[in-house]
Amino acid sequence: MEGENNMEQLNFQNEIETVLRQARKERGHVNILIAGRTGVGKSTLINSVFQGDFAETGQGKPVTTGTTKITKENIPLSIYDTRGLEMKDYKETVQELKDLIKKLSTNDPNDHIHAAWVCIAEPSARIEVAEQDLVKMLSKEGIPVIVVITKATSYNKDFKRKVEDILQEARKVICVNSIETRIENNDEEIVIKPKGLDKLVEVTSQVVPDGQKSAFIASQKVDIEKKKSESLRIVGRAAALAAGIGAVPIPFSDAVSIVPIQIGMIAKISAIFGLPINIAFMHTMLASTITGSVGTITGKAIVSNFLKILPGFNISAGVVHAAVASGITTTFGQAYITVLATLFIKNNGVPPTGEEVLKAFKEQYEKSKSESKHEEHDQESESKHEEHDQESESKHEEHDQESESEQDK
Questions:
Q1: What structural domains does the chain harbor?
Q2: What is the DSSP letter of 220?
Q3: Does residue 383 have a pLDDT over 90?
Q4: How would you class 237 by CB atoms within 10 Å of its CB: exposed for 0-12, middle for 13-18, buried for 19 or more?
Q5: Contacts of 279 (CB under 8 A, 6+ apart)
Q6: Is the pLDDT at 299 greater than 60, yes or no?
């Protein structure tokens, strides 16, 4: 009784604050340097890859004469945008960038430049000395360089090979057409679809340090599958922790001990999908979805509502086993991932609002409970059919035995 009363009174405000700090820390922060001549299409590229119209006009603050640092609230990304890599003053620009890289090489890995995109427009079909010197300098400073051939609508393989031959220090050369492009050709309009963005995201996620991969995956909007895969790993780890707590069956009144695991899991998944990681969103999501009201979140309310969606679990049984603890976590986590992925696809990569997430998750949560009830009903029906079949079979056997006995007489 005492444990149950404690669970009723427990408020998870402090727990939420703790897991939010941990989620932010684990996600980290990623910094990408983007350089190229004026008109090469850097802003369009940035907005096509990252969440939140990152390169809006007027965003950012100068950090050198020719470089601006662009950040956006709730997105764990900084873009160092070199405004115009022009021939007349490129040496000064390259030296400023070199000094900036050294300045940012602090003891905190979140300050470092983690990758560089050097952009060259395909229509120009030229590789300037400025671009060659920049790639060499970045490579020498230990920055992974990806050369991005922008406005790549003509599939000029010869130019790509030329870039690869001249800029051999680059980790990869990728042709990208950031947005749908319409070209007039002999009075006929040709539509060129966006291409290469997924390849750029894939290669960049490979070259950034492990500690920044989650931040990059969270910031980009091109590859939703990467967000899902990373989130499923989080669910797997959380389920294993929950199973460990339930390895020795625990009383239902003590099952509150698994709730911080679920809260941490949801915070980390939210971080991977690039959602705001703040107390207001987490508290509202947990309270209104799980307890049915926007009030104090209590351990008993959360646990009992989690358990209701698990097929075959009876709260009156009074204990939580490892399989149940793991099942609670997996069911809730997978439902949350499904909702976020669906909303991202529906919104064309734009992060959903908190209201959209809450509404969709409630619907998915109710669907999960409904499916569980159907599954329980089917299991009960199947069990009754089996009992009926066994009873019928037994009666047939008795009848056959009686018939054989009559014949023997």
A1: 28-219 (3.40.50.300), 223-377 (no CATH)
A2: B
A3: no
A4: middle
A5: 13, 16, 17, 20
A6: no
Beta-bridge partners for 118: 35, 147
User: What is the chain's mean pLDDT, rounded?
Assistant: 80
- Give the rounded percent of residues in the chain with a pLDDT score beyond 90: 39
Strand positions, DSSP E, 230-327: 250-251, 319-320
The b-or-e profile of 248-277 (16+ CB within 10 A means b, else e) is eebebbbbbbbbbbbbbbbbbbbbbbbbeb
| Residue 223 contacts residue 204 (beta carbons within 8 Å) | no
One-letter amino acid for residue 218 of the chain: A
Give SS3 for 29. Answer: coil
Alpha-carbon Rg of the chain, whole angstroms? Answer: 29
Let me know: does 263 contact 286? Beta carbons within 8 Å.
yes
For residue 98, which amino acid is it? K
Give the pTM.
0.79
C-alpha 299/C-alpha 53 separation (Å) is: 39
| Total residue count of the chain as it appears in this document | 409
Phi, psi of 189 (to 5 degrees): -90, 125
Which stretches within 10-141 are classed as H helix? Answer: 13-27, 42-49, 90-104, 129-140
First to last CA, the chain: 67
68: phi then psi, degrees, rounded to nearest 5? -120, 135
Q: What pLDDT shows up at residue 275?
A: 83
The Cα 170–Cα 295 span in angstroms is 54
Tokens 């669906």 map to which residue? Answer: 342
d(CA 369, CA 309): 4
Three-state DSSP at 192 gives: strand
Closest CA to 254 of 14, 19, 2: 2
Q: Which one, of 120, 359, 345, 74, lies nearest residue 218 by Cα? A: 74
Residues ≥6 apart with Cβ < 8 Å to 44: 55, 150, 178, 179
More confident residue, 364 or 125: 125
Q: For 194-203, which contacts have Cβ atoms below 8 Å and span 24 or more sequence positions?
A: 194/48, 195/152, 196/152, 197/48, 197/49, 197/222, 198/222, 198/223, 199/174, 200/49, 200/117, 200/146, 200/148, 200/174, 200/176, 201/49, 201/226, 203/146, 203/171, 203/172, 203/174
Start-end of H helices in 152-223: 157-166, 197-207, 210-219
Interhelix angle 210-219/13-27, nearest 10 degrees:
110
